[in-house]
Every structure is written in structure tokens, then in C-alpha cells.
Write a structure and sequence with these properties.
By secondary structure, this protein is an alpha/beta fold. Helix 7 (about 215-230) packs across helix 10 and helix 20 runs parallel beside helix 26. The longest helix has 20 residues, at about 375-395. The protein is elongated and about 120 Å long.
């Protein structure tokens, strides 16, 4: 805003002279028909000053017109072919009151040049008004800088940037963004948020910077890196940072006008245990080293990085405006007073921070309104301010100790978002809830399996007889009884019989390796095992008493069919389920009746089934998701339909069972739901009313595919085994405005805390570890007191001294609506196709091999939706990658110790692992495996083989498949095998048994099967259960 007697003619003339003097202001560019754009300095360029007169309007109208004018101006593009690439507008508001708007493209000028040009323009203007010639020095030619640039050593810059960016292959998530990127071709809209840091705070910052020997820019970069880290949960972050680009050794560079500014990646590792000052000094040292190589362009740097081609290296940019003439930029001229200076800067980034520090500090956040909600940016700005103030208050603190919370926000997080108290019966157990239902509906259908059914009365009687036998055998409350059965009536009778006897059951999955079952039996000190003939031969030897239901049923016939007197209470154990353990040995999680009953009663309060639910029991009972299938339908008067062994892997069988039995409630792990939805028969399941998903993250695009073919409700649930199945719930919405599926809100009588590394609650939008409190928290790990004390701790946010929380290790954050969003893990636990896996357990098993010095196991994505376990190995001393032991032998060893889903698909041998500065393995820098078959390529020999090879290529996303290539060596697994069998049926009208693929997983062998079935007229394969031996087949190693 310009106040005073402004001469518009002289003002326009002053700008024309400035354009005449400076080559940058006369620059244009040519792109058309050229491989590389050409910069042209035009000899004569005329600049126009648009003059508008709004003096007759009211102040309110003037402000409205100005906002409209600025918005239109900001959305007006420049024509690169025609200079000048700037626009000037002078708006008369009154006799001595004007608004001046100057717009220019960053291709010709940087921020440093702005005060230089304005000083020059006003010096010329004053001279014109005085009738004199301005005394201005000759402009330093921009060509001097270009000559300097051509002399720089690009080879050394490449070496520096490759080392600096090694291992960083994905951009840091944008803090609080609705989406991380816009669809191609969408033009973003922008807005800005202005934050002011008070002068006293800025003064203290300057003092801290001076004492610590760091710059104010370093402090601002550190604060922004810390915010990115807190929001994303990552300790290695990257953002764009502007550098002046003006080499200090060049004479007169400070007065040159043009584009010197460069935007380069700033990679900052955030160490929460480091002292603030020491950490900022490290950032400063990095900046000083970078200065030697800041001449490299961003395009070159990206090419030297590990970032995939076409991926933007960073979504946020920080520009610290600290130019020499900034503080004198708005000095009044002889006749004009300059005030109310404002600016708007647009970049190609979704989020840009322009920071200018005078007496006060201005932080201007320019953001894409298509990617950020206004409230999210306001909160982000508040957190920036809070971190600055926290740093000023305690510069001696650790990095992790800087808190983002206000007292009101703390109350909101701990109390308001955890207001889950619900009155449920307190004296119930799983067996009493079932027995109450038996009394209400004794003759209703309870169980269905393989064409037979049991009423509530019949099922209860058979479970009671087993319970009486167990009590006679010495079963007592909190005893752990093993259940070693395949899916059947006997499995349900065994589980319910154990509970009715007052004991707790331990699932012993017959498909587990013998060694793993042995560990479980030893750790749980199992005294009695219930089995049946279908799998009794797979039970390892132990000191436990074994009851075979198939051969010993006659012993139960004389026993009472009445309910045993209740001996177990709400605080006694109900079950112990073993999960993967990071030490190389599985750990058993002990859950009490009160926790699992709370979960069941919550489900009854949420799902209105009118007592007529028909649910399917298909989840392996060694996974805790099975518990709601096993118990909840039979507590509400519903019917439980039991899928045959192996049936849960075959989508066509599931569709048939749903249709035949009119199933209306079913559970899917998301990866299996994806396979199910691809089955053509999935559209013919109209009875389904509720689909529950849990076990792994639910992708938004999968919900879209679900709603496209089904009218059922889709529910996303979350919870670890250590907290009675699930503790968070979200009902998915059709056509949701937010393209993401959160884990939702806490269930009844549970508390969910999101905690930062410092132990403070994490504010909305900031990532932290999820801690679970409330009645569903497990007792702990069986016979693992140290691990129990480590993961189950006193609730620091509760007034109840007995309250405990479970530290999940899951990284989450609150959304604006209070729902919780899952981000990943803070450790090396993963979920793969619904299985919870501790990578450390696999590594421990591999490292036990004497030929392996060290191993690292990771999940790698072979193709979209196809994740694989990859093991990286360093041979033992004296070995080399060429003399490594046979990988197939190592796989067989692992198969004797680990479930098949934990045996890596691919093995890569290395001479050494890339390391971080702290000595840990840099997992991001480990190479991608070569997803190729090691067999010699043999082309298809006939039409059947040709068709099958094309199907394999499409499903496995590989360019070429030979007829002897192993399906699993090319990236296949059980879920992809289901897809392949379905595709063969669709394309070739032949239904190949799934077990045939596991027995002989090659195109040649499968082609023989297809031909044989065609010749014999067989079109329906049915579903044959896949044996553990068949699933042991794995792909060949990749080196």
C-alpha cells in the first residue's frame, strides 16, 4: 500500500527503466519443438502498468474488489514466449492512497532480487520526480553466474548427493493431508495461512542460535523436520529447502538480479534421544557441507537418488527468507510511505512454508486446498509455534521431550475421545453366556457342518460330557488344555468342553510344524490335549495326556449331559493363543473371560441381528479373530456354519456355502476379501448383510470394489491378540469423501491412547504408538514375566493404580474427526495376508544356521497387492555368496521350525549390509530382489501351455514364463494360487484342483492336468484340502 502524492506516470516510467537495465526482466523462453528450452534475452521490452480507479467505492467494496482482483491475478498464467514475465497494477483508492500489485514468474527472479529491484525502481522514481538522473551502478551481468556454474565439478556433486540420499526411496508423508497426491491432470487450488511468532520469542531464538553457533534457518529447519517426523512417525524425513544459490566467492553476486535460488532436498534424521542443541548443530554441519554442492539442479539430484522415476522427492518446501536488504526493503521514499506489504508465492509443491524473520517471525503456509483441510493447516501452524516456544523454554531438552500439547487438547485426547464406559454384566464367562442362550432356545439350530446339524441342546450336552471328563481328569481354572483338531463339530465341542470344565484352551493348529507345536506345549505346560483321528498323527510327543475324540467318544457316553457347576470366574483365563515372537520362539497371550466377554457383549450392542444371524466359522482357530465366530453367534441365538478344512482358502467354495446356508455375517482378512471379490460368484451372495474385516489394513479401493457389487455393510475392526480380538471399530461408508479407511473409535470399556516417544499423548494429526487400556487388556504372556512387564505397563493416564495398558508397537494418529488412522509399525512386526509375523523370529531361525553370519528379513512388494517375505543373508566367515549352502536346504530347515507363511519366498546373499550412522542396518538401502526364475527358459509347446503361460504372466506380473518355471519362484503364494485356478476356469472352462498346483507348480504339469480333465470330461474339481506338505513348496532362491 502506497501513501502519498504518487505520480503514476513517473512510477510507470521508473519500472520501464528498471526493465531496460536488467536482462532478467527482459527474459522469455522457448519450448515448442525443442528438446531443451531456450532462454532468450530480448533487446526491447515494453512493460505496461495497469491503472484502476476505485476511489469512488466504499472501503468495504474496495476490499472485496481487491480480493477478487488478487484471486484472478494469481490464477492468470504467464506466456513464456513473451517478455516481460511480470505484471504491474496500480489501484487508486483515494487521492493519496494506492494499492500496487506486482506479479512475476520465479523463472526470472528469486526472492533475493525483489528488494534489489524495488530499491532500484523507487530510486529512479525519486530522481524522475526531482528531475534528476538516478545515480545507480551498472547491473552486474547475470552471464557471470552462468560462466561460474559451467565450471563446477558435477562428478563430485553426484558422489555427494548419491551418498546423502542413499536408501531414501519414498517421499515423507505430508503432515495432516487428506490425500498424499492429486490425480494426474488435476489443477490444484491454493490458500495460505499466516502465523506470527512474537518478537520476544524471536529475540530469544536469536540468542540461542548465537550461543549454539547455528543459524536461525537451521533452527527453523529443525523444527519443521521434527514436525514432519511427529506427524509421519518416521525418524528419517525429507523436505525441500531453498538455498540462495549465490556463490560467496563471486564478486558482486549479492547485487545481481535474476534466478539464483535453488530448491534441494534436505534429509534430516530425527534422533529423539539426542540433545536439542547437539542435534541442531548436526543439521548445521550438514548444511555447510551441502553448500559446496548446491549448484546441482533438483532434476539432477533426483536422478542420482533412489527415488523412483516420476515420484516427487518431497511434498513440502521450506523457504527461509533472509536476504541482505530484507529489513530495508520497505524504507519510505522521498514522497511515498510504504505500508501493509503482503505477498503470495506459489510453488509446484502441495505445501510451502515461507519464513521471514525480522523483529517478529512470519511463517506463511501456502497449501493445496484439494489436499489439506483449512483446520489441518491451522493446527499444523499452531504446532509449529508450540515447538518454537518449547525450544525457547527448554533448549537443553532432548528432541523427544518437546511437547505439542495444550492442557485443553490433553483433556480432549485422554478423556473426551476415550469416553467409552458402558454397563455390561460383570459376572459372566463365555460358557455362562452360551448356557443362558441354550436355556432360551434349546431346539434352535446351533451348528452346521458337512450336511449335518446340532441343536443348542445337542451341542451343549456333548460339550458338557467332555467337560465332566476333563474335570475328572483334573482340569481346573487357569489350567491350559490343548485343542489339536481340524475344523469340525469336534473342534467346537473340545473348545466349549474346556471352558465348561473351568479351564482355558490353547489352539494347537495341526498345520503348524512339529517343532513349533513342541515349543507351545512346553511354554504353556499343557497337561491335557484333545485331538481326533484326522490329525492325531501330527501331534508331537509330550508328557501331556491325550484324548482322541474319534476313538474315545465311548468314554463320554455315560457322563452327565447337564451343565457342570461353574468353577471359573470373569478373572480366570479363557484361552491362550500363541503369536510370533521376536526372540525366535512364539509367545502365548493369556486372555481372561472378562475381556473376551466384554468384546462379545459390545458386538451384541452394535449389530442388530434379531437372534437370526447365520455366521460362518472359517478362520483358523489359532488366530484370535476366530473367537467372535466361535462364540458370539451362539450367544445370540444364531447358527454357526462351519467351513470344511481348507475351505477358507477357496473363494468359489465359500460362495457356494454362503448361498447354500444363507450366510449373513462373515469375516475376511482384506487380502482374502480381494480374492473373494474377484470370483464371479461373489455377486451371487445376496444374503450377506455384514462383512467384518480385520487382521491387516483395509485399502480404500477395496471398499470401493466391495460396495460396487454388494449391498452389505462393511466393517473395519482393529485389535491385537493382547487385547481380546478387537478394540477399535469403523463402519465403512459408501462414496466416502476421504479416500482412506481408519481403524475407527474405541469399543466399549476400552481406552486408546496415542503416545509420543516422550510419553506424552500425541495431538490430533501427530503419529504415535497406540497403547490400549481397559477391560480387554490381556493378563500377559504365559511364563514370560520379563516380556509381560515390558509390554504391559501401569496406565500412566489413569487414577486407578491397578489399571494397565498394552503397548502395541503400532504407529497411528488421530484424524480431525477423532477416528484413528493406522500408519504402520515402530518395530519389525508385520502383517502379511492377515498373519502377524515378527521378522525377528524369522531372522533368529535363519541365524541359527551355522553357514549364515547375519540375516535381515523384510516384506517387499512384488507387484500391486502381492507382498513377499525376502531374506537378505551374509555368509559366515570364510563363505562367499558363491559358496553359500543350498537355499532349498535352508528353506526346509525353516519349514521344520516356522509356519509356512513365515518362510521367506526369496533369499538374497550380500557381502555386507548397508548401515546407518548409528550402526543399524539401513533397511531402506537393501537392494530389490530380482524377481526372475533361475531356470532356463523353455517356450510353450502347444495351445494349452501358451494359454496357461499368458495367465501366469498376467497374474504374476512377469514378462515371460517358461513351461518349467516354478509358480512360487515367480512370486506366487496361496492367495495368488486361488486367483490362478479361478482364471483357468474362466479362460479354459476347466476346474483345476488347487492341490495340483501345489504338488507340481509348473505350466507343463498344469497343462497335463488340464488336458487330462478335458479328455475325461471333468469340469468340476471340487475343493481338496491342501496339506501342509503341499504348501511347503516354495519358490527357488533369487540371488
Amino acid at each position: 500500500r502506497l501513501s502519498g502524492a504518487l505520480d503514476a506516470g513517473h512510477f510507470a516510467a521508473a519500472w520501464q527503466q528498471a526493465v531496460d537495465r536488467n536482462t532478467s526482466l527482459r527474459t522469455s523462453f522457448r519450448f515448442d519443438g525443442l528438446d531443451d528450452p531456450v532462454q532468450i534475452v530480448n533487446r526491447d521490452v515494453s512493460v505496461d502498468l495497469q491503472q484502476l480507479d476505485w476511489s469512488a467505492d466504499s472501503e468495504e467494496t474496495q476490499n472485496a474488489r481487491l480480493s477478487e482482483f488478487l484471486e484472478q491475478d494469481q490464477n492468470t498464467r504467464f506466456d513464456f514466449n513473451n517478455a516481460p514475465l511480470l505484471r504491474l497494477a496500480l489501484i487508486r483508492l483515494g487521492d493519496h492512497d494506492h494499492r500496487f500489485v506486482w506479479s512475476f514468474h520465479h523463472a526470472i527472479l528469486d526472492g533475493w532480487s525483489v528488494p534489489l529491484i524495488l530499491k532500484e525502481v523507487f530510486a529512479i522514481y525519486d530522481a524522475l520526480c526531482a528531475g534528476t538522473d538516478p545515480s545507480l551502478p551498472e547491473p552486474a551481468p547475470f552471464s557471470n553466474y552462468l560462466l561460474w556454474l559451467n565450471r563446477q565439478d558435477n562428478a563430485s556433486a553426484e558422489t555427494f548427493w548419491r551418498q546423502t540420499l542413499q536408501g531414501f526411496s519414498a517421499p515423507t508423508p505430508l503432515p495432516g493431508a487428506l490425500v498424499q497426491q492429486l490425480p494426474p491432470g488435476v489443477e490444484p487450488n491454493y490458500a495460505e495461512n499466516l502465523l506470527q511468532i512474537e518478537a520476544e520469542t524471536v529475540s530469544q531464538l536469536r540468542e540461542i542460535a548465537q550461543q549454539s553457533r547455528v543459524t536461525l534457518n537451521t533452527i527453523v529447519q529443525g523444527v519443521w523436520a521434527l514436525l514432519l517426523s511427529r506427524y509421519s512417525g518416521e525418524d528419517d524425513v525429507m523436505f525441500g529447502a531453498t538455498t540462495s544459490g549465490r556463490p560467496a566467492e563471486m564478486d558482486g553476486v549479492a547485487q545481481m538480479i535474476g534466478l539464483f535460488l535453488n530448491t534441494l532436498p534436505a534429509r534430516v534424521r530425527v534422533d529423539g534421544d539426542a540433545g536439542l542443541i547437539e542435534w541442531l548443530q548436526e543439521i548445521q554441519a550438514q548444511q555447510l557441507e551441502l553448500r559446496q554442492y548446491e549448484f546441482a539442479s533438483l532434476v539432477e539430484v533426483q536422478g542420482w537418488s533412489d527415488m523412483p522415476r516420476g515420484t516427487q522427492m518431497f511434498g513440502s518446501m521450506l523457504a527461509f527468507e533472509n536476504y541482505p536488504d530484507m529489513e530495508t526493503m520497505w524504507t519510505d521514499t522521498d514522497s511515498i510511505t510504504i505500508r501493509e506489504v503482503d505477498g503470495f508465492d506459489r510453488t509446484n509443491f502441495p505445501l510451502t512454508l515461507n519464513v521471514a524473520a525480522f523483529d517478529m517471525m512470519q511463517v506463511r503456509m501456502v497449501y493445496s486446498t484439494d489436499m489439506f483441510a483449512d483446520e489441518a493447516i491451522t493446527r499444523l501452524a499452531d504446532h509449529f509455534r508450540i515447538l518454537i516456544e518449547a525450544l525457547v523454554d527448554n533448549p537443553a531438552a532432548r528432541v523427544a521431550d518437546l511437547s505439542l500439547l495444550t492442557p485443553d487438547e490433553r483433556h480432549h485426547l485422554l478423556v473426551e475421545l476415550n469416553d467409552t464406559a458402558t454397563e455390561f454384566p460383570q459376572d459372566v464367562t463365555l460358557q455362562t453366556l452360551f448356557e443362558d442362550q441354550v436355556a432360551r432356545t434349546p431346539d434352535a439350530e446351533a451348528l452346521v457342518f458337512a450336511g449335518e446339524s446340532l441343536s443348542y441342546r445337542e451341542f451343549n450336552a456333548r460339550a458338557n460330557q467332555l467337560a465332566h471328563w476333563l474335570q475328572q481328569a483334573g482340569a481346573r481354572p487357569n489350567d491350559l488344555i490343548g485343542v489339536h483338531t481340524e475344523r469340525s463339530f469336534e473342534m467346537l465341542i473340545a473348545i466349549y468342553g474346556v471352558l465348561k470344565a473351568g479351564a482355558a484352551y490353547v489352539p494347537l493348529d495341526p498345520e503348524y510344524p512339529e517343532q513349533r507345536l513342541q515349543h507351545m506345549l512346553e511354554d504353556a505346560e499343557v497337561s491335557i490335549i484333545l485331538t481326533h483321528s484326522a490329525c492325531a498323527d501330527r501331534l508331537p510327543a509330550s508328557g501331556a495326556r491325550v484324548f482322541n475324540h474319534s476313538t474315545g467318544a465311548a468314554h463320554l457316553d455315560p457322563l452327565p449331559t447337564t451343565n457342570p457347576a461353574p468353577v471359573a470366574g470373569p478373572t480366570d483365563l479363557a484361552y491362550t493363543i500363541f503369536t510370533s515372537g521376536s526372540t525366535g520362539r512364539p509367545k502365548g497371550v493369556m486372555n481372561e473371560h472378562r475381556g473376551i466377554c466384554n468384546r462379545m457383549l459390545w458386538q451384541s450392542s452394535v449389530f442388530d441381528t434379531d437372534g437370526n444371524v447365520r455366521a460362518m466359522q472359517k478362520t483358523p482357530y489359532s488366530f484370535d479373530v476366530s473367537l467372535w465366530e466361535l462364540f458370539w453367534p451362539l450367544q445370540t441365538g444364531g447358527t454357526l456354519v462351519i467351513a470344511k478344512p481348507g475351505g477358507h482358502r477357496d473363494s468359489r467354495y465359500l460362495c457356494e456355502l454362503i448361498q447354500e446356508q444363507r450366510i449373513d455375517m462373515i469375516h475376511f482378512v482384506p487380502s482374502m476379501l480381494q480374492v473373494f471379490l474377484q470370483d464371479p460368484n461373489a455377486t451371487n451372495c445376496p444374503t450377506i448383510r455384514h462383512v467384518l474385516c480385520s487382521g491387516e489394513a483395509l485399502p480404500y479401493d477395496l471398499t470401493e470394489r466391495f460396495f460396487a457389487i454388494s449391498d452389505a455393510e462393511l466393517h473395519n475392526l482393529y485389535g491385537p491378540t493382547e487385547a481380546a480380538i478387537e478394540v477399535a471399530y469403523w463402519r465403512c461408508e459408501r462414496d466416502s469423501e476421504v479416500p482412506a479407511v481408519p481403524i475407527g473409535f474405541p469399543t466399549a470399556n476400552t481406552k486408546l491412547y496415542i503416545v509420543e516417544e516422550s510419553g506424552d499423548p500425541a495431538p490430533v494429526g501427530v503419529a504415535g504408538e497406540l497403547w490400549i487400556g481397559g477391560v480387554q487388556v490381556a493378563r500377559g504372556y504365559v511364563n514370560r514375566p520379563e516380556l509381560t512387564d515390558e509390554r504391559f505397563i501401569a496406565d500412566p493416564f489413569s487414577d486407578d493404580p491397578a489399571a494397565r495398558v498394552y503397548r502395541t508397537g503400532d504407529l497411528v494418529r488421530y484424524r480431525d474427526d477423532g477416528a484413528i488412522e493406522y500408519l504402520g509399525r515402530i518395530d519389525h512386526q508385520v502383517k502379511l495376508r492377515g498373519f502377524r509375523i515378527e521378522l525377528g523370529e524369522i531372522e533368529a531361525a535363519i541365524d541359527a544356521n551355522e553357514s549364515v553370519a547375519q540375516s535381515v528379513v523384510m516384506v517387499r512388494e512384488r507387484s500391486a497387492g502381492n507382498q513377499q517375505l525376502v531374506a537378505y543373508l551374509i555368509p559366515a566367515i570364510g563363505d562367499t555368496p558363491d559358496t553359500m549352502p543350498n537355499i532349498e536346504t535352508l528353506q526346509k530347515e525353516l519349514g521344520r521350525q516356522l509356519p509356512d507363511y513365515m518362510v521367506p519366498s526369496v533369499f538374497v546373499t550380500l557381502e555386507e549390509f548397508p548401515l546407518l550412522s548409528n550402526g543399524k542396518v539401513d533397511r531402506k538401502a537393501l537392494p530389490e530382489p530380482e524377481w526372475v526364475s533361475e531356470r532356463e527358459y523353455v517356450a510353450p509347446r502347444n495351445d494349452i501351455e501358451e494359454t496357461l503361460a499368458r495367465i501366469w504372466q498376467d497374474i504374476l506380473d512377469v514378462e515371460q514364463v517358461g513351461i518349467h518355471d516354478d509358480f512360487f519362484a515367480l512370486g506366487g503364494h496361496s492367495l495368488i494360487a486361488i486367483k490362478l485356478v479361478a482364471r483357468v476356469l474362466e479362460k479354459m472352462q476347466v476346474d483345476v484342483p488347487l492341490d495340483k498346483l501345489f504338488e507340481t507348480p509348473t505350466v507343463a504339469a498344469l497343462a497335463d492336468t488340464v488336458a487330462a480333465r478335458r479328455d475325461s470330461g471333468q469340469t468340476d474339481a471340487g475343493i481338496a484340502p491342501i496339506t501342509r506338505k503341499q504348501r511347503r513348496r516354495r519358490r527357488k532362491p533369487t540371488k
